[in-house]
Design goal:
CATH architecture: 2-Layer Sandwich
Helix content: 25-40%
Largest sheet: 5 strands, mixed
Distance between the termini: 32 Å
Structural class: alpha+beta
Shape: globular
Low-confidence stretches: none
Number of domains: 1
Strand content: 35-45%
Strand order of the largest sheet: 4-1-3-2-5
Amino acid sequence: MPMLRAHVYIHGRVQGVFFRASTRDEAQTIGIKGWVKNCSNGSVEAVFEGGKNTVDKIVNWCKKGPTGAYVERVDVSWEKYLGEFNEFTIVY
């Protein structure tokens, strides 16, 4: 299976609704590596690395997010897989 890296920005009501923690939980459940963090403009930024199917799955999950979130749009940049992460973390 090809390995992929997705760099995403999630826009909408995505802070204060456990988006980061829920993203971490979802990523860990499906075996994605990378990180997620809040941005000063109110969006959430994340980098996901893994197999094509699992990266597609987490990117699609971000389009809805957890209960309480309202996702307006998700911007995705597909990048070269680097394999630089050992786990999925929240960046503060």
